[in-house]
Here is the input.
Amino acid sequence: MTGTPGAVRLPGRAPARRLWAAVALGYFSLGAGLQLLPRHLTEQVGTTEAVVPVLVCLPFLASAAARPLAGRLAARGAARRAVCGGAVAVAVGAAAQAVATGPAIVAAARLLVGVGEGLLFSGALPWVLGAAPPERRGRVAGWFGLSMWSGLTLGPAAAAALGALDGRTGDAAAWVLMVAAPVVAATLVGATPGQVRASEPTPRAVAERASGPRRRRGPTRTDVTPGLYLGLVACGYGVVVGVLALHLRARDLPDGASLAVLAAAFLVVRAVGSPAVDRWGPARPAMVLAVVQAGALALVPAVTSVPGALAVSAAVGAGVALAYPCAVALTLALPASRPPAVAIGITTSCWDLGLFASGLGAGALAAAWGTSAAFVAASVACAAAAALLAGGHSPGATGWGSSLRSAGVGSPPTRRRSTT
Here is the structure.
């Protein structure tokens, strides 16, 4: 298999299913914590309600910082080390939260969980993509991303079900699951063969090394547009997760079904639509779905019925479903200067930063002007994401216009003449 310069060469297939399961287990722990933590903080730790959103959002900030490190480890053939270390960090962080007696301990534990999640996912994804042919990377990224979302969907559901069955005993069982799930993930990955880098340099590489440092040619992968697009879309999704339940309750509408419909629409569109990223290029689906999400968010303040709430929730879930595989494909379409694993890690960090910013910003907007203001701001963010791709250019960047045209935006496709 021939890979992108700087990519790790894998002997045959990566252990994709095992890595998928490991990531799902890690995010199961994170999702269960999102369900348990607000009540745990107020009832057991004694934290004020104003501090709860900050502590809940802390892992996203830590994940954003850890993902580039995971990419560098994967680029050096140490993806297994990153994934195993991430799973262990999640387990330790979950255990620390369960026994925490003060907000400071919870904050440290939440940061550790975030670092672990960043290492876990962003170490595993390049491992899997390195064994995938270039023409299938969009669908592979979309399929593998389902591991994260499956964990985030099942974790809160399991924690809520256990708590409903037996109160504090159920919560204690959920905390045990939060620790056990990433431990199983670390065991799964630790028992697999690691990445293998090419140990013998090719004659061409030996000659180039002997001739001295090479001059870099052409544009480099320094464009911020894929990450900025992903961060803006994440702001829309983060507002929905953080504010939709409060918005619907204030209008005497059920909120549980809406969030379930959003998750179902996300999973269906991600599973069915990921091949479209490779077939039509990543920019077109990304642009269209960002517009869909912006329109759905703009309609939230006008929702007055259960069918309307369900329809808007489904549209938001569908709109964000392909954002990540599209952003990964757009990142890989840029001319390479750093290893692809590092570039993907940096782009993925923007998703975490968008969620962190939206969690804090939505609360402030809702407190000052009501929940409708938060959804209007989220709609504007998604519209800006679509405009970024429609423009096909980002100020100060190099090579983005040509990369977008090759990804399906801009001038009509032209047939290339082969050269020898």
